[in-house]
Amino acid sequence: MDDLLRVFGVFDEREHVLRPAGDVLVLETSGYVVHSLQTALHDDLVADSSEEAIVTAVNRGGDTDTIGAIAGAVAGAQFGASNLPDRWVSAVKEAEEIERLAERLVTVA
After folding, report:
1. Residue 11 predicted with pLDDT over 50
2. Which residues contact 4 (CB under 8 A, 6 or more apart)?
3. Based on CB atoms within 10 Å of each CB, which residue in 15, 77, 78, 99 is the most buried?
4. Is residue 7 part of a domain?
5. Does residue 11 fall inside a structural domain?
6. Of 12, 9, 10, 6, the residue nearest 27 (C-alpha)
7. Phi/psi at 26 (5° precision)
8. Does residue 14 lie in a domain region?
9. Residue 107 lies in a domain
10. What was the pLDDT predicted at 24?
């Protein structure tokens, strides 16, 4: 978590993407990589679960697929696969094959 906070702070200072609007934090949802990364990291840092991070990220509008994918990847690393809702996991087609391929990739790496 400290690494995420450190990276988040660097992007915040360099790009000034996060800016207060009164008492509300404004997050950009454009396809610009810094905006997408910063918004996704913010959603992960304040979330208590993978579902909360991902749902918050995709419900922001804008470049939802990019922001959601980043938030999902970071949430997976942060909370672990076991934190994903069962209803999401059970809806994945070819899940067993994907898991086998992932295991093979880990072995190769």
Report:
1. no
2. 41, 44, 45, 74, 78
3. 78
4. yes
5. yes
6. 12
7. -95, 125
8. yes
9. no
10. 55
